[in-house]
Amino acid sequence: MSNVLRIKKQLNNVYLILILMILGMGFSSCAQNERKKEFSWPSNKFPCEIPFKIINKGNQTFAWEIQSITCTGQANNGYSFTVKGKGAVNSKNLSIGSRSIMLVPEEKNSTAINMSQAAVYFFPAVDVNESFEFNFKGLFSGYYNAKLFAGFLILSD
Fold this sequence. Notes:
By secondary structure, the chain is α+β, with helices and mostly antiparallel strands. It has two domains: 1-37; 48-156, Immunoglobulin-like, CATH 2.60.40. It contains one helix and eight strands, in the order αββββββββ. It is elongated and about 90 Å long. It starts with a helix and ends with a strand.
């Protein structure tokens, strides 16, 4: 009888190990699926979220808290983008020059900034926490290799 109990105990341990292995594989699969959600361009589905990085060269607070850049689809031989956010500081008193921000396409596997594709946009004058939204066109066919696109760099002084 003790052999039967010992075998049952060993089987229970084997079942427990199998369950843990299956759970571990499930978690690993979820982690791999998260990694697969990396940004790819051109998108097959619009609207799509575009990654961005803010590079603030000055010591001042960046006046706009950008919450998202969304590509809404193709337009004018390029693509249409919408920038949404809210004011981080009161920018209503800033000069037009202080509200001009450069948006530069970031290239995959590159540490250099390709300024030949930079475009200057005037961000809206808003109060603190006031929402803003504006649209722009970019990544025009023939001027930019869309296969290199990895998102936008937002440069301010």
